[in-house]
Fold these 2 entries.
Entry 1:
Amino acid sequence: MKKPLALTIVSTIAIVALILLALSLNKNKAEQKAMNAVAINSVANIKEFESRSAEWGKYYPRQYNSYMQTKKSDKIDDLLKKDPALVIMWAGYGFAKDYNAPRGHHYILEDNINTLRTGGPTDDKTGPMPTPCWTCKSPDVPRYMNENSELDYFTGKWARLGNEISNPIGCADCHNNETMELTLTRPYLIRAMDNEGSLPFADATHQDKRSLVCAQCHSEYYFKKTDWTDKSGNKKIANVVTFPWDNGFTVEDMEKYYDDINFTDWTHKISKAPMLKAQHPGYEIYITGAHGLNNVACADCHMPYVREGGVKYSSHNVGSPLDNMGNACMTCHRGTEQELRDTVARKLERKTELNSTATDVIGKAHLEAGKAWELGATKDEMQGILQDIRHAQWRWDYSIASHGSFFHAPEETLRILGSAINKGQEARLKIRIILAKYNAADYVAPDFSTKEKAQKIMGLPYQKLVDEKMHFQNNLRKEWIEKQKQKGLYDPKAWEGMEFKASYSE
Amino acid sequence: METDNIMKYIAIGSVIIVVGLFTYVVNAANMVSYLSEDPKVCINCHVMTSHYATWQHSSHRESATCVECHLPQDSFSNKMIAKSMDGAKDFMAMTFGTYDNSIRITDSMAKRIQANCISCHHELVSQMVENTKSYQKNGDGSQVDRNCWDCHRKTPHGSTRSLSATPNNIGVKEKL
């Protein structure tokens, strides 16, 4: 009577549990099978220099989807607001107009077009910037270089190529279209490596290339004026992207390179110093740090392997490894995630401390030098001071322009910041003597604690720049998009859902 | 009574169903394989393939299998108790997917492995163990407390152990 009932109840419970277990097992097995079947449609048929990444994505959906995840890094972080000394330090140069922290690669072209630095051209001959500003932003660049010539690409104003540059950084920048091998599409990097000599490009291994494809853009450069004659016999001047690596990779080597050729990026508006701008020497600083010296490639941390079932592929969601520590760090490092995070935070604190000192010192140096000129100082008196300011700011910029340098090579970054502060203070000491000579020994530089105050000091017509930019957005840019669509360059997937965000949009 | 008979049949029927389902699950989950000590059994779970692959490429390949380090070797009952506890824990982790990308051993497992290191390498390290006892006390990070792999870090699972970053890893199970 009771025994069969009890037995049935117990059995029923066991049956339910076993069925659930069986379902779970089968689900896992089915997942494994699906993943191992590796759904690549067919042999990829991608045309050479195909600049629309969605075409590549048809054959490599996992990499493409992860690449599209860079959409998520969409915050505008106005660095001029964060440290208004930057406005003073870049007075007379584009960066004083607008400078934001970089967003995800998805926004690379959008931000290049939106930034006040590229201005508001009204046709293909106007605007403040030359064509090479597009160089690191689009796979249309190697496409255009191939269709025309490298020198042709580097000639003219930025606005001239607005019709041709349609797609943000994508597959064609780093991959061969037939074999998917890593390849360099920017010839100036190959030339720079061969000039520097320690790793001629022909000797680069696959692991080296996992860093070199990034070094195509994440390196210090300048535009070298090059005379050339086109097919019709017209003499032209090209601004060729060149890496100043001939003397070596260190900040001092590059300083000497620029000093030897008397190269100046711009003359400072307030202090009249012959200034250099350092652009993100990510690769050069990185190779001096612990990870670089141990042959860890950029991709090992920033594009770590991820696993979906039984398939392993490189995540193309290029961003901070701190957002994916499990795959990026814990594959090699023992200890806990939190320990590593704390270590990184301490490194950042140290850099922030020295960085704020440096910008304060150098900003003041500029303003004090400006005052000295005002009081009638002579060129001879100011010569040495201006060189010190040039060197101080070059070093400061070099150490922090690559935003990850505090982590890639912490000692080198802090060393360079230290030398920048030293040079800045030396300049200020010398200026103080001049000021005393002209009876202004107790001069105090004006307050530049907010972006508005700083831009006022340098006389920046901010609203005018914004108006010009908005006029450009509503007119010439729209014409560009139309022409790109006609040429078959436009990829709607790259622009879907793009919200307009800039430091001047509300 | 009639219902008694029906109940009896239902009871017997349900037991048969349980036995049937149980056999099916035993088959689907390769349960019988877990009675053996073959390392290939450990890679029934794909998450372990990187540990298998790194062991296969290490100095311990010919000398120690998985259970020889990871299960107590001092007595049969200790081994069986440890095996059952581990099995239950792994079963829960697998079925409910609660494990992480980078798997770390627990403190109790670390004690077991340390004991096994010493037991195999006894001649080499016994003097070392005796000497440290003369100069240092247990507790709070003294050398007596250190595990062998705090220095011998790559033994035997290498320095890169995640499922997606370890070389020679994908397809290990399929190839065997």
Entry 2:
Amino acid sequence: MTATAMPAGTGAAHGGDAHAHGHHYTTTGLDNRKIAIWALIGSECMLFASLISTYLIYKGKSLVGPYPHEAWTDPATGTVYNPILNIPVTSFSTFVLLMSSLAMVLAHNAVVNKGKPRTGFWQKLEGNSVFWLVATALLGTVFLMCQAYEFTSFVHEGLKLGTNLFSSSFYTLTGFHGAHVAAGVLWLWTLAFIDLKRGLGPADGISVDICALYWHFVDVVWIAIFVLLYLIK
Amino acid sequence: MATTVAAPSYAPPRTQAAEAKGGIWSWIATTDHKKIGVLYLFTALFFFIFGGLEAAVIRAQLAAPNQSLVSAELYNQLFTMHGTTMVFLAIMPLSAAFFNFLIPLQIGARDVAFPRLNAFSYWVYLLGGLFITAPIFFGLAPDGGWFGYAPLTTRQYSPGLNIDFWVLGLQILGISSLAAGFNFITTIINLRAPGMTLMRMPMFTWMSFVVQFLVVLAFPVITVALVFLQFDRFFGTNFYTLSAGADPLLWQHLFWIFGHPEVYILILPAFGLVSEVIPTFSRKPLFGYSVMVYSGILIGFLGFGVWAHHMFSVGMGPIADTVFGLTTMLIAIPTGVKIFNWMSTMWGGALKFTTPMLFSIGLVSMFTIGGLSGVSHSSPPADLQQTDTYYVVAHFHYVLFGGSIMGIFAGIYHYFPKMFGRLMDERLGKWHFWINLVGMNLTFGPMHFSGLLGMPRRIYTYDANQGWDLFNMMSSVGTAIIIVATLIFVWNFFASLRRGPVAGRDPWGASTLEWSIPSPPPAYNFAELPTVTSRYPLWDLTEGDLTKEHHEAPEARDRRIPTAKELGIPMPADTAKPALAALGLTVMVGGMFLKHVNMTVFLAVVGTGAVVFVGALYAWLTSPLEEAH
């Protein structure tokens, strides 16, 4: 038996203070939620990888139009359908979502530096966590409105959910992303509401931090979608 | 008189049933990982028996040629639900019972990282399991096989509600597994006691750790595959509609990218359990601990690169076939390493053939048979002869019954005393083992032959004189023997709960932290967080004297275990919000099948479920984990 001689009991004195009131011992020193959100993000990567792969596999395989990047004439009716994807509108919504990540960073910064003395309008604005949380949520909401507009106009142009392989995979992928943005917006409004009600301080940094990680992840996924679906023809 | 070994200082002083809090509410509202583990164990054993009965009907139908005990339609439902039940409702949750009960104890933690999420996982599992199981009583059970190949399962070819129940039920169950996956990853990374480095973790915790990564990376893929199928069936998308140009292999690829890691999700926890049992009853440390860790990780990693060996017969072409044949052969290496390490652990050890040890040896030998037949169909030309025949059925039953179930039985006999404070009967346990071993080999052994003689899977009957009659009769007789063995187990389990001998802290002289505390452990597990200095803390404590029996000193019998409150340990409060959220989620997702029954009822049910789910979730997330004190 290769016993490392030290009896296990001797170390108990160190472990003993680990359940000091209100502070739970963790191995890494990190909050549990931080590790869990990274695990969630890893899992979400596989979710979006599956959705994006399916879109790419089905790219160009639709038997009937409308198509994403080229016009299509219905041989039966002779109706001409325009290319579906509207790059300028989506470029704008992409920009909005990127800016929301900036606001998110500033919101986190404002929460963890709460209590720092600030003078002047700009410094006070920088430290106003409610403002930045609401700004992030609003920018996210604008993105969702752009997506709602996009979906509505596509349907009017003749692309319904079951029209072809492109429509099925496009709406499902971007819809799943939109649902993630919507969940994030709900999360942000909740944080903003709590901040307004009782004020978030440095001790709440982790609560904002995990929301921010999720939000940035959803943002990064959109970058991938924007490039792979919209920009590459 | 047995020698008394001083309990380590971090162990609470006495072995006695923990604070007795009874009543059904204490189970519904519990956030204690041990109670949730026990809930998982009972529920999963129920589903194991249920899935076994489905198999019994299948074997009765196939015992002789041209029988008509069940209709072809019901037969389809039976084999579909047998597979679905055993994979998702029996083996995975039986493993989850051990994840819950053991991981915090093995790493020296008070609970899992998110106790309420843990309760949520259980309730989602229970409700989802009932949702997917209940339809069989109405003749509406899923009937597309546990792998649910689309386009067969699209509305066009499966118009009934059957597949709707399957799609929705698996979505619900997936949420349970994913939530548990995040929880245990965080628990193992972040709640290890001081000194419990990764390479000091018990092997069961290590294998569970690998499994959680497989779960969180594989389940999203089947989620997407199921979402496609659900959208096709409910909202008219055409992911699997061949007439719209869909790829007939899309489902197969997505399903098996999930499905093959799932195989390791099913087997690695059992590997972990026997890696606890074999060193204990060989009185030796596990041979090649670090290689065991690395081979487990490698199995998990390679498990994502072999999925298309389930698809050799679809015509992927020689390059894909070769690549997936090679990766499949590669995975035999880390698996073989484990087999040899268990044998090397036993080599020269002071072996004690207790029931858990017998079942562990059963796993090592029976899994090896299943592993070898697996290697035989890693070769695409051989697989073309074997695929869709009973040879494959024989293969995966040796792996899952001979492997996973044997390992889980080893775990149940081994940890029953820790869970319930009493030992199971050894004599009945050995009867269970030997009868089970005979029954299982008689059931699945002949399937190699009927399969190689060409008997296809999933046929509800067959004509006489094709050379299959004898083998089928043998398989059916074997199933009856397994039933006898299982009845002995059930009797032993429940009788031992009441009348088994009191176990004490460490009845087996085992080495890991969970054996340092009373059986059953108090709610807070460890009075003080232990500090760990080696892989075998309890063997260090007894300074190499491993053969002495460990019993509590009689004078200690009457001392009561202090409660968490007396020790000033903050504990998570009981709450039923996770159970309520699980109910809302199940109603919301499960209620979707009503879309094709009645639109108004559909909207009302799904809406109610959504409101309950979101409401309970908000109430849960905005309330503190621990009672104010």
